[in-house]
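README: folding subset

This subset contains proteins for which both the sequence and a predicted structure token string are available. Records are stored as plain text. Below is the entry for Anthocyanin 5-aromatic acyltransferase (255 residues), shown exactly as it appears on disk.
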Amino acid sequence: MDDRCCSHFMKTWSSICRSGGVDLTLLENSPPCFDREVLRDTKGLETIFLRDYFEARSTWKVGPIPKHGADDEDYVKATITFGRDDIESMKKWALNRWKKDDEFQAPQYLSKFVVTCAFMWVSLVKAKYRKDDDEVAEMKEEYFHFAADCRDRLEYPIPATYFGNCLTILKAIAKTITDMKTEPLKGAENWKELFMMFLSGRIAIVTGSPKFTVYETDFGFGKPTKVEMVHPRMCVSFAESGDKEGGLELGLVVR
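--- output ---
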């Protein structure tokens, strides 16, 4: 399931727990939708995805889960918080540079998601090549991925509580977000080839969104003081800030 499904499930579960199982208002007013018929597969994507899945599955090796090695100790998990002022400063700086240096027309507005993603990605790439021997380091393409919820971007209505994956994998940031508004599933039939290309380089993948308000999830003993997402080292989790209004939290696993 995708992040929106997970968020809806957690909000519903916490609401029921908070009321001691008495108040089912959220579940009654906003029940999950499991009807797969609401999706219109006009391009035959289901057949393509199933073919690619079973081709990949045939190569999986069955065996015990490997033990953690000594290399795991080299990884550090951290949470970076951006306040509202930090984000606004990055927006102004980015727009000014865009208008001055870029050949493309600068947009009138940049979202906090775009500017924080750009700042984070550039910082990660610079950190990887910080060593003294960076000139002899193996050069690889850098790829950035994030998922977008397609429920309200298709040509036909999809319930906001549709339970299942409804994601588009995106490769760029600002320009791709604009293009995706009109064709959210463009090129979906070639996702397998794109994934294989991405694996040949270095990948940064964004998960989560501040729109899911994870700090509003209350099981009855108050709102959480700290929320951490579980994800592999190639991923960066996004959430709203728990203590800075209008801010963002980025969860990283770095070496």
